[in-house]
Amino acid sequence: MSTQELDHNYRYEIKSPDDVSQLISKFAGKGKSNKVIWLALIGVFIDAYDLTTLSFGIEQVISEFSLSPVMTGVVASAIVCGTIVGNLIGGWLTDKIGRYRVFMADMVLFVIAAIVAGFAPNVWVLILARFIMGISVGIDLPVAMSYLSEFSKFNGSSNKAARLAAWCPMWYAASSVCFGLVLA
Question: What gap in Å lies between CA 50 and CA 137, rounded to an integer?
């Protein structure tokens, strides 16, 4: 058992992991936790947006780079291959340098790679940029989900991350609507 002073007026006894969970839920939604939640949600939305948008714009990519069916498949799958690599190294990086640094670095990496992909002069630059974007997505999803489950107000015995993941279809639907607005 330990006692933690979390603010100037109260001391909290921590006897079990449930006590930690209750403390997190008690302070969720206050102060910086709202900022963390919104930042993580934006990161996950950007990931979902990127994973879906190529399906809407693949015809333009094929036309721009005169792609064969095989190269079209390589362009489309580059981000998925990068996501696998990102998932494999993300946990290790998080353990080594911390969640916050990894989260911020992968968001910066994602933005830079997206800009490079947008201005890709040839198909190989596009493939590399999308692969790097995939690495960022692979690193981002587990880190963002851990932030969301830690700082969210969800209470109860079920897994917070599982309940948050149930929102994934909404993120994909929202990204589809955004792309529809761009085309309009």
Answer: 9
Closest CA relative to residue 148, chosen from 18, 26, 39, 30: 39
Distance CA 40, CA 36 (A): 6
Same domain, 79 and 5: no
Query: How far is Cα 98 from Cα 100, in angstroms, rounded to an integer?
Result: 6
- pLDDT tier, 78 (very low <50, low <70, confident <90, very high otherwise): very high
- Give the CA distances from residue 65 to residues 54, 60, 155, in Å, rounded to whole numbers and listed in that order: 14, 9, 50
| 57 contacts 109 by C-beta, under 8 angstroms | no
- 9-60 pLDDT per residue, tens: 556 566 655 555 555 555 555 566 667 667 777 777 777 777 777 777 888 8
What pTM, to 2 d.p., does this model score? 0.69
Number of domains in the chain: 2
Cα Rg of the chain (Å, integer): 20
Indicate whether 76 and 12 sit together in one domain: no
Range of the domain at 9: 1-28
Same domain assignment for residues 51 and 68:
yes
The answer on 146 and 65 residing in a single domain is: yes
CATH of the domain at 149: 1.20.1250.20
